[in-house]
Batch of 2 targets.
Target 1
Amino acid sequence: MPAKASGAGASSSSATIEVPVPRRSLIPGGTLYRGNEGMWSWVLHRITGVAIYFFLLVHILDTALVRVSPEAYNVVISAYKTEIMGLGELALVGAIGFHALNGLRIILVDFWGVGTRHQKAMFYVVLGVWLVLMIGFTPRHLMHVFGG
Amino acid sequence: MTTDLTLDNPRTPHARTKRGINWEKWGWIYMRVSGVLLVVLIFGHLFVNLFLGDGVNQIDFAFVAGKLADPFWQWYDFALLVLALIHGTNGMRTIVNDYVAKASIRRILHAALLSSTAVLLVLGTLVLFTFDPCPAGADPELVASFCEDIL
Ligand code: HEM
């Protein structure tokens, strides 16, 4: 049933507007914001943002070693070529990929006229594009890391 | 000092309490503008360093020197450094504001974010623009092939 919402406050006109009933979520769970795509996209965006931030701090420092000596740089960078770190790089690329695509979704929600209405669909587009990019990257990276 | 957290009722009209530049608004805009640019810059960064050629195995001093000898990559990496670091720091500031209720702790964390960002911005910029791809006395095995004429 479409809910009726009237204008706020005494100053507005008495016209009522139709508010469409929110579409049912594909993810079972809470009501409104809680437990649905909107919440999980936010949780993932926040966690990936923090993870990338701390990597960036380390990454600026390890790159700064090119200014120290070729030996110093090569020794530290060789740590990135181990198998454990190779898996870590995969996770990092996955995190950045999600944060980047979902960031574009946030921008569309903010600036695109019908962005809020399509935020759920856009979340699944983000997951789909992310999956395609990861399918392109993962085998190649694993071959580099594990030889082949 | 007590924590003073008052929230306006919903639908309370926006009241401008301060004059001057609305820094929160410009921070909000910066997150979006830098985000769009970072999508392009980070995709290119990962594609060239981690996907093309030998992937992660190709990265060593000679590889980086080969890139940073070219002003294009110097300015590319400079844009990446500035945009990503400030974007990340501003995002962390938002998170601190969300979770840290105590004003004194919040101030300490803000100061830590600001000072570490300032140090890394200066360090990263100096590295990018004072870098010597063929350092004097370096092991010829470890530097880029174009250093032969110079060393
Ligand atoms: C790849 C391109 C990127 C895009 C499109 C992007 C986009 C965004 C957007 C739109 C926001 C929300 C800002 C707001 O709500 O006001 C955000 C938040 C954030 N971003 Fe990014 N970003 C990108 C890269 C990065 C990088 C490289 C870092 C780390 C250095 C980072 C760290 C963060 C953090 C920590 C937040 C705050 C998260 C939160 O408040 O929950 N982002 N990003």
Target 2
Amino acid sequence: MIRIEKLSKVYYPGTVNEIAAIRDVDLHVAEGDFITIIGSNGAGKTTLFNLVSGNQPATTGRIFVNDTDVTSHAEYKRAAYIGRIFQDPRLGTAGRMALEDNLIIAYKKGMKGLKISLNSRRRDFFREQLTKLEMGLENRLKDNVGLFSGGQRQALTLLMMVISRPSLILLDEHTAALDPKNASIVLDLTTRFIREYGLTTMMVTHNMGQAIAYGNRLLMMDKGEIILDVAGEEKKNLTVEKLIDKFHKIRHASFENDEALLSP
Amino acid sequence: MIEGILVEGLIYALMALGVFVTFRILDFPDLTVDGSFPLGAAIMAAMVVAGANPWFALLVAFAGGVSAGVVTAMIHNKLKVPHLLAGILTMTMLYSINIRVLGNRANIPLIRQETILSQVAAFGAAWFSTEWSMFVFFVIVIVVTKLLLDVFFRTDLGLTIGALGDNPQMVIATGVNPEHLKVIGVALSNGLVAVSGAFAAQFLGFADVNLGLGIIIAGLASVMIGEFLLRSNRIGVLTLRVILGSILFRAIMYLGRFYGYYINLTPNDLKLITGLLIIVSLIITKTRTPRTRPWKPLSNSAIPEPRPATGPAVIEETDQ
Ligand SMILES: Nc1ncnc2c1ncn2[C@@H]1O[C@H](COP(=O)(O)OP(=O)(O)OP(=O)(O)O)[C@@H](O)[C@H]1O
Ligand SMILES: [Mg+2]
């Protein structure tokens, strides 16, 4: 489904501040893959998502989606099939607009016309969808989204993404800003939606246990490279200890700092 | 006198609605207005003097304003120039263009010309005085415009334009090019402003290249005064309060003109008063308790934080 070839991203090239955030990454994501991605701060996880989603141009390399070269396609065009959720719950929704308005904008993907699509049939559909979140939002269609809690807003972002029917979703620590209870609610919802709609998923997390428990494939990134790629049985048998051990072997580096960062 | 204030308030309300669309809905502080207002006036005056149908001239004035808005939005989109600078560029260029439209003069008188307003006065003469005929006419114009805007901002396109002013990242995520929305919004805004200018020229009896001087500030003041009158997040109320704000602003200016004399104010001081009015509005808005957010703000390394709440370019509780 997604093929990434020799992808790299250099910030401030040719200056003393030059940063190679992504280095020569090759990656093939199959339809239906649920990939978890771990790596220390600055490893390049967010940058990888920025390149795949088209938020930033790649320095070199190509990105193919279903064998179409999308490397030069604008972000809004790729949004037709790529959904993305950020860590900040405010980035996914328009806080100063009512819940129902947010939903209709997400539902009608692509350039909009002069039609008024919000009608009672759609509202019923939205209510039905909102009940899946089990947060009582189905009774708050006219409320501004800015009034909702971070957890409610992130769950809503998830729902809005799902009803816009993407084929690939990029989740960037999307539960990290939430308290533990809300984080687990949103994570449960995430896995439910992924299963229900058969979404191909890439999920960045700082929680090693989560990265091991979820998905069928695990990537570890470090210094702009994918240094570990485990799938299938091997992934199922992973433990946090084994993961740390593998990192040691690959990098021959002291893991002390990273151990602290990648909490199990 | 009261009918004069009302008519003026309604004419300038069209301009204030345009300012509302860019500043409040689109979050695109657009200064083109200072040029597109006299552009509308100039087109109307030049065409009427040349013997054109004034209704057709109104349409051309609207188209002129739309074009000015498109130019500003394109400068901003394509050259990645900040909003304010893009608007100032267009506004400055319009100064020369407006003089051209006026026939290389600074103004054109419209006395004894057949205009929409002279038609309205003649038509209403059986029932009303000239002033009240105009008042009835502009009430109709404003109500129709307001209702059209209300409907527009409920359509899928209008809602998305509203979302752009709130969260551009979300608009991109729904597969829409924000640049297109900016062109549409800024064009619509300047179209309204130019129509307002066209009516102002007929009402004042002349078009002048300096008619637009500081008009953006008058529009902004009207929008902000309106915001003190009514609090709501419904588009119907938002547009209504812009109109009420415009009328109230004209009333304040009228008082300044007629009674300011006693405290040694001259008409030249009105711009100062307008500016002070805005500053006072800002101070009042700032000292109101800010709404608290239920979660801590966080930033994602690659995506800029949503813009901070500063000054007039932010809608307090807007939504459609
Ligand atoms: N827009 C940018 N401009 C300049 N440098 C950037 C930009 N975005 C990322 N970088 C740099 O690229 C490197 C990779 O950053 P990135 O945000 O991708 O890391 P990450 O793996 O997502 O880290 P974290 O776990 O902290 O979110 C870092 O050194 C970062 O400073
Ligand atoms: Mg990151």
